Amino acid sequence: MGDAAQRWRERQAARGIPAAILAAAPADPWVHDPAAFTPPAVPADTPSHRAARALAERSAALSCSGASVLDVGCGGGEAAFGAVGTEPSPVARVVGVDRQADMLAVFAAAAAERRLPHATVHGDWPEAAPRAGRHDVVVCHHVLHNVVDLPPFLAALTAAVRTRGGAGGVVVEMLPEHPMAWLDPLWGRFHDLHRPPSATAEDAVAVLVEELGTTPEVRTWQRDRRLPHDARWVTRRLCLPADREPEVARELAGIPPRRTDAVTLTWSP
Ligand SMILES: C[S@@+](CC[C@H](N)C(=O)[O-])C[C@H]1O[C@@H](n2cnc3c(N)ncnc32)[C@H](O)[C@@H]1O
């Protein structure tokens, strides 16, 4: 394993919650609420969605048939439906992969509502990759910071691209640092837990270059979508009981707000 992959591994491993804190948590701090991931009826016009749509258009033009989009860690499918965009769409089919079955239900319902042929694959990436097949466009939004062993995860994203005439590609969206890094001062305050620096988007790019020989196109931009950050949500993330919420609210007021910049990485095999 090269230096960049090792750095990613160490920084991500250090994001774990110690077993004693987790055992005392009144609610699972990790699990995502699928309702929060219902994709908007009209996708936001973002660099990631535009990049995926452009790849789909290129693939559809070359193959004279609609493009297929694979969404890895799909949640409700905001990334896939962002590539679909407005009609007429170059996307003919979407496939969602997620380790949470309830997310796949939201994804399938959203695809059915849009009358879009679809399939779901329940499982962990990259182990689930053989069941997902190959597609013109592979999108993966806000999943990398869940991953410790990044090289096989990224390699499987690239390998899932169907290279018809070199038209397809991968679009990854992530935050510049771990989505919970802004709460590090509160882990210190409430649990005396002092975390090392977060893995960054630059670290992910370094892994791509080092392990796959791939230099992605990198775009940094501002998201307008409201990110969860209220005291109730943070109390749960910090493994604290609900009656600590007022204290959490006071401490939250004293730390820098959650960052709103996002990074889009695009590459073709
Ligand atoms: C923060 S959510 C993002 C969902 C969606 N991509 C979006 O941007 O709205 C992360 C999703 O990835 C899923 N996930 C995380 N790691 C995964 C893995 N290794 N394999 C499959 N799904 C994963 C989680 O269950 C969750 O639904």
Automatic annotation (TrEMBL):
Keyword entries, A-Z: Methyltransferase, S-adenosyl-L-methionine, Transferase
Q: What class of enzyme is it?
A: transferase
Q: What is its EC number?
A: 2.1.1.-
Q: Which residues form the Methyltransferase domain?
A: 69-165
List the SUPFAM superfamilies: S-adenosyl-L-methionine-dependent methyltransferases (SSF53335)
GO MF: methyltransferase activity
Pfam families cross-referenced by the UniProt entry: Methyltransf_25 (PF13649)
One GO BP annotation of this record: methylation
Q: Which domain of life is it from?
A: Bacteria
Q: Sorted alphabetically, which PANTHER family does this protein's record hold?
A: METHYLTRANSFERASE, UBIQUINONE BIOSYNTHESIS O-METHYLTRANSFERASE, MITOCHONDRIAL
- What is the name listed in the Swiss-Prot or TrEMBL entry for this protein? Class I SAM-dependent methyltransferase
Organism of provenance: Pseudonocardia spirodelae
